[in-house]
Amino acid sequence: MLTKEQLHTLLDLGLKTGADFSEIFLEDTYRGTISVNNGDVISVSSGNTFGVGVRLLKGIDEVYGYSNDTSYASIEKLMKTLSGSFKGNANQAKPLGEKQPFTYTIKIPHHAMTPEQKSKTLIELSNIIKNHDDKIIQAGATLIEWEQKVLIANSNGIYQDDIRTYTRAALTAVAQDGQLMQDAYDAPGRAMGFELFDAIDFKALAKEVAESVMTYLYADNMEPQEMPVVIHNGFGGVIFHEAVGHPLETSAVSKGLSPFAGKLGQKVASELVTAYDNGDEADQWGRTNFDDEGKKTQKNLLIEKGILKGYLSDYRSGKRMNYESTGSARRQNYKYPPTSRMNTTYIENGTENYEDIIKDTKYGLFAKKLGGGTVNPATGEYNFAVMEGYMIEDGKLTKPVRGAMLIGHGAETIQLIDRVANNKSYGQGMCGAASGSIPTDVGQPTIRVSKMLVGGQGGNK
Amino acid sequence: MFKNWIELGLKKGFSDVEIYSTRSKSLSIEVYQGKVENLTTSDVEKAKIRAVYDEKLVSFVLEDLSNEAVNKAFDQLILNAKALTVKEPAIIFEGSPSYPEVKENDFNFDKVPVADKISYLVDLEKHILANEFVKQVDVASYSENYGETTIINSKGLNLSKKHNFAYAYAVGVFEKNGDIKTGYDIKLAKTFDDFDAKADAQMAIDDGLSKLDGKSIKTKQYETVFSAKKFGEMLSVFSGLFSGEAAYRKTTALKDKKGEQIAVKGFNLWDDPLNELAPFQNSFDDEGVASNPKKIIDDGVFTGFLHSLKTAKLFNEEPTGNAFGGGISPAGLYLAPGEKDFDALIQDIEEGFYVTDLVGLHAGVNHASGNFSLQAGGMLIKNGKLDHAVKMVVLSGNWFDLLMQIKGIANDLTFAVSGVGSPTVHVGKLTVSGEDK
After folding, report:
1. Whole-angstrom Cα distance, residue A171 to residue A182?
2. Rounded to an integer, what is the distance from CA B329 to the centroid of its chain?
3. CA–CA distance, A21 with A19 (Å, rounded to integer)
4. Which helix (H) or strand (E) holds B29?
5. Helix (H/G/I), strand (E/B), else coil: B152
6. What are phi and psi of B131, to 5 degrees?
7. At what angle do helices B197-211 and B114-129 cross, to 10 degrees?
């Protein structure tokens, strides 16, 4: 373990040849996975991610190096190699400040229980899914947990540690009837320890997953058409995350690679839309105490009643466009330099009951649960799979449909939001981008988009 | 060091111990607007302990290679083994009788000055920007990678292999009449001379230009032709169906289909880790089993599953050398080419859709049912010829139906950087969701 003095010496060394910013990111992460299938514990695996990432900046020019050798000699060598990329007058690193304290809120840390004790809960959940119907051939319950300990020091005087604890459980079901096969899943997670299983009713969720797989096993394929789509709360927020959230990151905005570049203060969405990204929402999957540049996380207003109010920024992208960091610098691990990313991103509650929105829709699709999707940040084109969908006919949910795929342009879609309910909730995901795969929450109340292109293989015209 | 680990594990009560280790070094450079925007170097050594305790196989991946961490890892592995309830074969392998020789690439990219790599990227960016429809180049990036893999175990296995390669890619942002599209290229290189800024830029330009002036098309079924690259991606996405693990878990629709016709006659799908046309060759898998070429689908007939040591034992078959990253996957997947050239393949199509762009393959595919719905782009085929660009539609179908209705396979076998090879394939009718009727 390096002392504060050693870190300061190393940071200073990085600035000797013209760099104006140096940073050391040390990480020690433990991870474990327990997989249960059809009531049997089928795999238990563990691992650690351990190493150091060193970053130097001159203006916005960046050099980065990483290694799993965290000794003083190794980091010293890395600093010298990296600083060789720059030429200029020596700068001096500021003295390192004091660590800001934070509260460790974890009630049941990962090491407090053995894998055998934890697996009992998973076996019970797997059995609930398996026993729901004879046609369910696979009933999975997988526990994913990791704890990331980081220490960040930089030449601006930041000296900050953080502990990020994550626990997630994925429930999966595969059902089969003759040639028909269908799968379903749900995977909630929190910045918590094993107390996750007290915070969320997983037994009810296991039953829902089992019911869902049986419903969609026999569902008709979606018939392709343009129509109003009511997107349910929770994971439905993934469209906003992909199509609006990513283009609001200064890594894209500062290069003009975003439809929202230069639009602060302008109307970019329906006036029903107010949206935030919060890095500090208690216990949430996307939360950290400090970001990966050691800055305290905060709640950031993005859009207020349709008007663009802010971006999400890290130090370097912010420098490119003269925008203050919003505590949004994140990275998967020491193998990535940090960049601007989301934490817990959501559309704020409106005033309506979601049932009324369905009632007022003559014909359309109710996208109850979305699956994965992608967006091309430069063009704004996105696609999202609907995992659970129902047709809306005369204000009522009529039949389940499968295989629906939503496509569109993000900037257009948020203009077309014409109803917003009051039932905001969150869904959890792993968001992949330039600085790796990180836990994020997406969220929203139920919303309606007045027109979307819905693809599918039904109909066969 | 790893020999000591094995001894420590045996002392702690494991019956067999294996260390799978990798050492990887890399250099990557990004250029933006003529300047280096990021330069990253890395050196990481990683080890995976696979060990058998009480006839159960457990594993731990370490980047902290200190004695203390290794000691703790073995203790954790005992706890992990105690939690396992399933009775499955737990095998540490003594080795194959022989291993195929594979030519290792020995070009040393390190000897090429960094300045040359930077100037290649600067030129690459410049050549793309020279096109009148290019608004900017999102990124021009170069990366070189060296890796060494070693497997040693308590049964006396001691294998190692090396690889090194470099690749470059660039993404251009194209704009015409307010319509914005991205075009990209990726180039894999075994020596630095393989890079050619002008030619590599042209790939990104061709890709971007082909997407401009796109029109949507009416929603209906179209005769559909996948480009070689895109059919390769489809083969890759659905390759999990051939996994012995999926067969054992009964999650693949092919589980009772060994020996049955699952594709049209003339459809020959190989897994050939030694194929010299592919960008990489591989002499053994992650469990130390020797690689060998095999036909997965022979004239439309499914010949059998890909196996790890465990699933081979469960099915009483031979391991196929396909255990990678803790799962089972092909190591050299390619579809054998047919006779016709591209023009002949599409000449009888009155109206059809030529797919050159597929987005969201991880999301829009249901592996269990074979159903897929994917954001797609490409060209309209009219009277046997390519007509105009098609933008933003959804292409939907079922993989199993598709394999049985393939109408033609071209002779233009192309390998992607991923290692998967395919020719252009005319798959028959699929549903395209575009404009309302």
Report:
1. 14
2. 9
3. 6
4. strand B16-32
5. strand
6. -70, 135
7. 30
Tell me the pLDDT tens digit for each residue of B37-69.
999 999 999 999 999 999 999 999 999 999 999
Calpha distance B420→B414 (Å, rounded): 8
Q: DSSP for B193-233, please give it.
A: GG--HHHHHHHHHHHHHHHTT-B--BSEEEEEEE-HHHHHH
Could you report the per-residue pLDDT of B104-128, keeping only the tens digit for each? 888 889 899 999 999 999 999 999 9
Whether B26 and chain A come into contact, CB under 8 Å, resolves to no
Residues A262 and A250: their CA atoms lie apart, in Å, by 11
**Closest among A30, A298, A447 to B80, alpha carbons compared:** A30
pTM, full prediction: 0.94
pLDDT of residue B260: 97
Any chain A CB within 8 A of the CB of B115? Answer: no
Beta strand pairing call for A61-67 and A40-58: antiparallel
B419 close contact with A: CB closer than 8 A:
no
Q: Packing angle between helix A72-83 and helix A4-14, nearest 10 degrees?
A: 20
List the structure tokens of A242: 């992909």
pLDDT tens, position by position, B68-85: 999 999 999 999 999 999
A225-231 and A363-375 beta bridge pairing: parallel
- List the domains of chain B with CATH numbers: 2-209 (3.30.2290.10), 214-437 (no CATH)
The two structure tokens encoding residue B298: 């022979």
Structure tokens at B427: 């798959």
Q: A48 to chain B: which residues are within 8 Å by CB? A: 61-64, 69, 73
| pLDDT per residue rounded down to tens, chain A (461 residues) | 899 999 999 999 999 999 999 999 999 999 999 999 999 999 999 999 999 999 999 999 999 999 999 999 999 999 999 999 999 999 999 999 999 999 999 999 999 999 999 999 999 999 999 999 999 999 999 999 999 999 999 999 999 999 999 999 999 999 999 888 888 999 999 999 999 999 999 999 999 999 999 999 999 999 999 999 999 999 999 999 988 999 999 999 998 888 899 999 999 999 999 999 999 999 999 999 999 999 999 999 999 999 999 999 999 999 999 999 999 999 999 999 999 999 999 999 999 999 999 999 999 999 999 988 888 877 888 899 999 999 999 999 999 999 899 999 888 999 999 999 999 999 999 999 899 999 999 999 999 999 999 998 887 54
Answer positive or negative: Cα dihedral of B306, B312, B318, B320: positive
* Residue A41 to residue B59, Cβ atoms within 8 A: no
Q: Which chain A positions have a beta carbon within 8 Å of B41's beta carbon?
A: 64-66, 78, 81-82
Report chain B's terminal Cα–Cα distance, integer Å: 69
Question: How long a stretch of residues is chain B?
Answer: 437
A328, A340 Cβ separation under 8 angstroms: yes
Residues B437 and B427: their CA atoms lie apart, in Å, by 24
- CB–CB contact A335 B44 (8 Å): yes
**A182 and B366: CB-CB below 8 Å?**
yes
Q: Which among A181, A337, A385 has the least Cβ separation from residue B364? A: A385
Distance from C-alpha of B158 to C-alpha of B150, rounded to nearest angstrom: 7
Cβ density class B349-369: b for 16+ within 10 Å, e for less: beebbbbbbbbbbebbbbbbb
Question: Cα dihedral angle (B316, B322, B324, B326), rounded to 10 degrees?
Answer: -20
H/E element, A357:
helix A354-359
Other CB atoms closer than 10 Å to residue A278's CB: what's the count? 21
| Interchain CB contact of B43 with A (< 8 Å) | yes
Test A47 with B62 for CB contact under 8 angstroms.
Answer: yes
Q: What b/e string do you get for B306-328 counting C-beta neighbours within 10 Å, with b at 16 or more?
A: bbbbbbbbbeeeebbbbbbeeeb
